[in-house]
Amino acid sequence: MPDRLSALDASFLYVEDQTTPMHVGGVAIFERPSSGFTYEQVLDLVAARLAFLPRYRQRVLAVPGHLARPVWVDDVDFDLNYHVRRSALPQPGSDDQLFDLVARLMSRRLAPERPLWEAYFVEGMAGDRVAMVTKTHQSVVDGVGTIDLGQLILDETPEPPEPFEDRWVPRREPSRTQLVLDAMSETVQRPGELIENVRAVAGDAATTVSKAVETLSGVAATITRPAPPGPLNVRVSGGRVFSVVRTRLEDFRKIRADHGGTVNDVILAAITGALREWLLSRGENLTPTETVRALVPMAVTDAETAEFATPALVGNEVAAYLIDLPVGEPSAVLRLQHIGHAMAEHLNSGRSVAARGLLKVSGFAPATLHSLGARAGGSLSGRIFNLMITNSPGPQVPVYAGEARLVEMFPVMPLMRTQALAIGVTSYHGGVYFGLNGDRKAAFDVGLLGGMIEEALEELKGAHW
Predict the structure, then answer these.
(1) I need a labelling partner for 249 at 20 to 30 A (CA). Which of 9, 136, 200, 209 fits?
(2) pLDDT digits 0-9 by tens, 114-154
(3) Structure pTM?
(4) Containing domain of residue 240, as a range?
């Protein structure tokens, strides 16, 4: 039987265009060890792990006439040097130069005729640092069969990769005749899928929304209620701008201890305070009840089954919560209180956030969880939320790629067709790192918003009841 894309995975390919590439990114910054950390070493490290990620050596092959969803086939011309590329900044390269490069790389679609991922080894950074910028299509990472490359190449100990003999032999690509015969055979058994696939390829909006309801029933009750209008929801251009925020986990924990809630509540409150100031700086007239609706995908467990669950690579239970962020509320403490109540209502439904379990997973699980969050957001109509915010906890001990220690990790979340901003948050080794991906025209000032997140955090630190 052919290895056919799921309906959800295929939808990510169908809705993609030049202005909205459907890949998730990550920016990992490493401290170069005294023994060195070269492009050749990175190639060896990735090559030694590809056997665990067969999807990374497969490409998508369309079925003639769109009689069925595309299939995964081995790339008989797979070239690791094409997917792991070498880049450099003019020395001494600054962080701003790196993030400008990230914005340009993220605006480009992945080549559809090749496996849907790329990694860039970036040298020339000041402070004897190097960076790894990854791009992985949303159709690739499902959290069970395939995880993100950024998770697989990171280890808890600084050891060089073991020698690896790659015995992979690609299977022959099926002929057009075989693709059609397989599709016809499946159509006889499930005739409705042919109509659904043709509609999906044609971009049928009704089909997309109905599939969203089936895929993420947790937000079905609010799918008919549109998100509040505002400058975050415009038709995006093909350009991107990327900015980051560096904060300390202990600050969020202190605020949580002073005012209650969770660390995630405090993160959302800091973002809310920043969005409030950002909107005011753009001349928006905010009423006291004004809100911005965020889609907040979170890994969850069912209370009844968590005790008996055996995690695969991560587990792909990701619930998509819609949270109305109270940007009209002038009090930082009340904003935090509103968010805490809203999140508690979701989590009291019998499903708990699986943060503790995720920290036990080997490698760097946030890389995969952000990809799963993007899948959750990408399967929904953009009309029901203003922006996506993903937050995934990472290990609080150092991790390594070979002998190079990971210093910082910033997620790069994709933009939806009518959403100008997406925010990813990752905690790691005492830090909380924000990645802000914006449309170059509509959200050109994401750097300003990043500074406002820091100010909002300071406001929460000094706030009193």
Answers:
(1) 136
(2) 999 999 999 999 999 999 999 999 899 876 667 778 778 88
(3) 0.87
(4) 216-394+413-462
